């Protein structure tokens, strides 16, 4: 009991554990069930549902509108003032409802422009509904008050039910829609559960004026672009890739991408656990906050290098185990995705941790925009020659450019000072 008490009192340690449990539900459970899903659906159908989920990720970020960064920071700062916090919650939910028509327009444009969705419109509808509920889910609030366990338990339970539904109901290569529906239903129930928990925290709920939601746009705007620019750029590239390469190549790409995303997600729990702590300490002792951020940089960089080495030497075995013989073409793509991981670790700490903590959202956004141009240049100049491999190659260029631009902004600020 004493160990348990000390563990729960150590915010960074306990938050890291619960955030890893949360990401386990989102990504590692997927890896556990991935062999079954990949084998049951086949390469082509697997590629189609993965493309639909790529669109869903963009819609999730659109509805989150930067809340995972800025609103977590706002809650962390205001958590002692219940009145201000309740007003903030009201404004956030009203704002997210107001942007629903924009999301519908984006969905209709995607439906008309992407050939795969022309023949599978139900895929787009299902992922859009799930993305809406995941996007309005108040995870940002519980991150800010450091109650990560509520998110973790909710995600683990409902995502597990989702994968059990997939395991028992998916029987043929025509059942891709069941996979998408199961994901969307789990997002719906997670959202309902977290909103219920949030309602127990609220002391005085008020309905703000529509004009008051402009504050949410103002404080989240830069964070929205920070969160959305990389995903938007990569989603556009993935949609374009789907029209250039064959269905089998698309399946190979998404097979490798699923494994890469699961490994890449391992950085987030550590970063999210450190983030509220660094924000709070930075208001008291900037030097101590910098030391914690530097420690995080060292931990994540070493972790990223380790993951890359594992993929470099064991990619064939990993693909064979998780995806099966049908996906052997994913191996080389996976190695290149692995090379991205150490660079992602560095850019994550320099940008999403330190620059955001220091309220340098504008500088970070400019770095991401410039890096996105580098990504597009690499992607469109290499796609005809390298096909699906051009995506991870461009991602490496993107992450290196991000690091260079962020460090350059530090150097420039130092010289001006």
Q: What is the compact description of this entry?
A:
The chain is mainly α and 417 residues long. The protein contains 17 helices and no strands.
Note the topology.
Elements: H1 2-9, H2 11-64, H3 67-78, H4 82-98, H5 100-113, H6 115-119, H7 121-136, H8 139-144, H9 148-169, H10 176-201, H11 214-244, H12 247-264, H13 267-282, H14 286-322, H15 331-357, H16 361-386, H17 390-416
Helix pairs in contact: 2-7, 2-9, 2-10, 2-11, 2-12, 2-13, 3-11, 3-13, 4-11, 7-10, 9-10, 11-16, 12-15, 13-14, 13-15, 14-15, 15-17, 16-17
What does this structure look like?
It is built from 17 helices and no strands. It is mainly alpha-helical and 417 residues long. It has one domain.
Name the shape in a single word. globular
Category from helices, strands and their pairing: mainly alpha
Number of strands: 0
Q: Count of helices?
A: 17
> How much strand content do the residues show?
under 5%
Please give the oligomerization state of what you see: single chain
Biggest sheet, in brief? none
Total domains: 1
- In angstroms, what separates the terminal alpha carbons? 51 Å
Please mark out the parts with pLDDT under 50 across 5 or more consecutive residues, or reply none: 1-9
The helix fraction, in percent, is: over 70%
Written as H for each helix and E for each strand, in order along the chain, the element string is HHHHHHHHHHHHHHHHH
Instruction: Provide mean pLDDT, rounded.
Output: 80
Radius of gyration: 21 Å
């Amino acid at each position: 009991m004493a160990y348990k008490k000390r563990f729960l009192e150590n915010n960074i340690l306990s938050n890291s554990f619960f955030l890893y449990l949360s990401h386990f539900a989102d990504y590692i459970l997927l890896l556990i069930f991935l062999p079954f899903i990949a084998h049951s659906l086949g390469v082509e159908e697997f590629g189609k549902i993965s493309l639909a989920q790529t669109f869903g990720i963009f819609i999730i970020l659109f509805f989150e509108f930067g809340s995972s960064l800025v609103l977590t920071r706002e809650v962390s700062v205001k958590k002692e003032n219940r009145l201000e916090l309740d007003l903030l919650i009201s404004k956030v939910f009203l704002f997210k409802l107001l942007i629903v028509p924009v999301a519908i327009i984006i969905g209709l444009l995607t439906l008309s422009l992407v050939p795969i969705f022309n023949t599978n419109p139900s895929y787009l509808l299902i992922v859009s509904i799930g993305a809406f509920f995941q996007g309005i889910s108040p995870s940002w609030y519980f991150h800010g008050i450091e109650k990560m366990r509520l998110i973790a338990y909710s995600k683990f339970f409902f995502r597990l039910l989702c994968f059990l539904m997939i395991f028992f109901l998916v029987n043929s290569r025509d059942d891709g829609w069941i996979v998408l529906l199961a994901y969307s239903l789990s997002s719906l129930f997670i959202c309902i559960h977290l909103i219920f928990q949030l309602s127990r925290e609220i002391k005085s709920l008020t309905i703000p004026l529509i004009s008051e939601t402009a504050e949410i746009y103002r404080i989240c705007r830069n964070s929205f672009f920070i969160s959305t620019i990389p995903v938007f750029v990569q989603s556009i590239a993935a949609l374009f890739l789907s029209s250039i390469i064959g269905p089998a190549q698309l399946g190979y790409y998404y097979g490798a991408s699923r494994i890469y995303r699961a490994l890449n997600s391992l950085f987030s729990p550590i970063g999210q656990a450190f983030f509220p702590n660094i924000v709070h300490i930075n208001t008291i002792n900037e030097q101590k906050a910098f030391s914690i951020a530097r420690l995080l940089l060292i931990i994540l960089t070493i972790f990223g290098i380790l993951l890359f080495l594992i993929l470099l030497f064991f990619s064939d075995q990993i693909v064979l185990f998780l995806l099966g013989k049908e996906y052997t073409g994913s191996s080389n793509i996976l190695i290149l995705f692995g090379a991205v991981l150490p660079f992602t670790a560095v850019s994550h700490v320099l940008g999403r941790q330190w620059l955001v903590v220091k309220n340098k959202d504008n500088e970070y956004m400019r770095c991401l925009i410039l890096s996105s141009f580098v990504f597009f240049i690499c992607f469109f100049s290499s796609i005809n020659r390298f096909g699906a491999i051009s995506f991870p190659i461009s991602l490496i260029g993107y992450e290196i450019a991000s690091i260079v631009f962020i460090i350059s902004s530090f150097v420039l600020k130092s010289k001006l000072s």
